[in-house]
Specification:
With about 550 residues, the protein is of the alpha/beta class. The protein has one domain: Alkaline Phosphatase, subunit A (3-Layer(aba) Sandwich), CATH 3.40.720.10. Helix content is about 30%, strand content about 15%. The protein has 14 helices and 14 strands. The strands form two sheets. The chain has a ten-stranded mixed β-sheet, with helices on both faces.
Length: about 550
């Protein structure tokens, strides 16, 4: 097993955690139970009900995972999960934005049903959620890290919660522990892992199976790397996507009027031209030592036009990938813990992100669209004895909306009839049901809102994609054939050659809207006050994605 070197800031905490584990094993031995027998006991207590470790990141693009073929970075620990488990290539989100997707996972229902349509809504924690159902089935449940469903109530259905307040910062995060404010000093990615491992080691009931939602803030905007990786990629030029300078000629008004371009939308904070405002003096010194020389060279270069866009792209991607490097390291810590504690053999490990993300494709960052980069999210499952190691599912359309049903079946809970997702257990075991979905429905609501992406809905079958932008001033349709146009550069809606496929997808759209009980009028909670586009680097308004 590869030896992991923890960051200096948390080496003492890790040593303490190991010391506690050592003392616990010594005490067990004194009672006539060896450490090996203790590990076997942990396995036996939950043999009939596997543990569930749900690893979740925020805005992690599948293009930046080497198991998915990334050409710009390496993710050895996520790759390990794929090597020992099953990688899905068609995992589609229902509403590509942070808070709504978390509500979908909690409930197994689309946004218009669970009531959380846009960021800023408050999640109704009194409704049925899968953690509540697992609690009733005897599971110990916990959530650590990013929650983003509101601070009006503590997360419901959890024996333990310690979550960021809103988006949360990359450094020194205040958090809510079972609803009460706590504070931490250090890098948030490391802290979330420390807290999750502490719960697993010291706080849970060892006689019960567990379900832990271990949820990172990273690599969400504005991509602040940890101290270990501030200079990673300094000597590297990241390859540019072929659509970095997209003119949007083959699409309609929505693509041309968005406010999420690398060229115009990124702020000085995004680009690290100013330091974060919440660093300790010691952290600030390390930060400035890394960025000040690079920023000096940038200002002296006085770049313009495409050269400036290229510089912004490099700064953005390198910081984004640096954040991912820390996430991958911490996933490695968690996997090592499962191995060393004897929990790995009876623990299902899931890796997923709330949605995909643009890494310069179409000149963009962020998500929101039904286009591939933000519709698709990484999804990997390791389940020893159930999932064939090293397999890839590139045909079945799956979604985070399926997770609640899946977790219920794994836990031996009757799947509620009102869930809109379906259990993935048969697919995980290599037997796709004959009636599994072949077409998927998507809907995005947050306009007016951050980044000015218009409201739209649509359907995809993995090859053809039909999208409708539906507002009084923008009522437009787009359609793409991903086989001939994988970058979705030219809509074929209305093309006589595509008439048959268009009619078929129109029929599927009508069918799914009726089946999913989508109303003609959007839910009232999806209506937000209009925000002005933010097209200058001087703006200091918070991104709310």
């Amino acid at each position: 097993m590869k030896k992991l070197i923890p960051s200096l800031a948390f080496s003492f905490g890790i040593f303490t955690g190991l010391l506690i584990v050592s003392l616990t094993m010594t005490m067990a031995s004194a009672d006539g139970l060896s450490s090996t027998e203790g590990q076997m006991s942990q396995r036996r207590t939950s043999d009939s009900k596997p543990n569930i470790l749900f690893i979740f990141t925020d805005d992690h693009a599948y293009q930046s995972i080497s198991a998915y073929g990334s050409k710009i970075n390496k993710t050895p620990n996520i790759d390990r999960l794929a090597r020992e488990g099953l990688r899905f290539d068609r995992c589609y989100v229902t509403n590509s934005i942070c808070g709504p997707m978390r509500a979908v996972i909690q409930t197994g229902k689309y946004s218009h049903i669970n009531g959380f349509c846009v960021n800023g809504n408050k999640f109704d924690g009194t409704q049925q959620t899968f953690p509540k159902l697992l609690q009733k089935a005897g599971y110990q449940t916990a959530v650590v890290g990013k929650w983003h469903l509101g601070t009006h109530m503590a997360p419901q259905g959890f024996d333990y919660s310690e979550v960021l307040i809103g988006q949360g910062p990359y450094y020194n995060p205040p958090m809510l522990k079972n609803g009460k404010k706590t504070s931490h000093v250090g890098y948030t990615t490391d802290i979330i892992t420390d807290l999750a491992m502490d719960w697993l080691t010291n706080q849970r009931d060892q006689e019960k199976p567990f379900m832990l939602m271990y949820q990172h803030k990273a690599p969400h905007r504005n991509w602040q790397p940890g101290p270990k990786y501030l200079n990673m990629y300094d000597d590297v030029t990241i390859p540019e996507p072929e659509t970095l300078f997209d003119s949007y000629e083959g699409r309609g008004k929505p693509a041309r009027t968005q406010d999420m371009s690398i060229e115009k939308t990124m702020t000085a904070k995004d680009l690290k031209l100013v330091a974060p405002g919440n660093l300790t003096p010691e952290q600030l010194e390390v930060w400035n030592a890394a960025y000040a020389p690079k920023n000096k060279l940038f200002k002296e270069a006085n770049l313009k036009g495409k050269d400036l866009i290229r510089w912004k792209y490099q700064r953005y991607l390198k910081d984004y990938l640096r954040c991912i490097a820390s996430v991958d390291d911490n996933i490695g810590r968690m996997l090592a813990y499962l191995d060393e504690s004897g929990l790995a053999d009876n623990t299902m490990v899931i890796y997923c992100s709330d949605q995909g993300f643009y890494l310069g494709e179409h000149g963009w960052f962020d998500k929101r669209w039904m286009y591939e980069e933000s519709l698709r999210t990484p999804f990997i499952v390791r389940w020893p004895g159930q999932v064939m190691p090293g397999t890839v599912n590139s045909s079945d359309i799956v979604s985070p909306i399926d997770f609640a049903s899946t977790f219920c079946e794994i836990a031996g809970v009757k799947i509620p009839d009102d869930l809109q997702g379906h259990s993935l257990v048969p697919i995980l075991r290599g037997k796709t049901p004959e009636d599994w979905r072949t077409v998927f429905y998507y809907q995005y609501y947050e306009y007016p809102g951050a980044h000015s992406v218009r409201r739209h809905y649509g359907v995809t079958d993995g090859r053809h994609k039909l999208i409708r932008f539906y507002e009084p001033d923008v009522d437009e349709w787009e359609m793409f054939d991903l086989a001939s146009d994988p970058n979705e550069m030219k809509s074929i809606y209305g093309d006589p050659k595509a008439a048959g496929d268009q009619a078929r997808m129109m029929a599927e759209l009508d069918r799914l809207r009726a089946e999913l009980k989508v109303t003609d009028e959007d839910p009232p909670q999806s209506i937000r006050k209009k925000r002005q586009p933010r097209n200058n680097a001087k703006s200091k308004k918070k991104d709310n994605g």
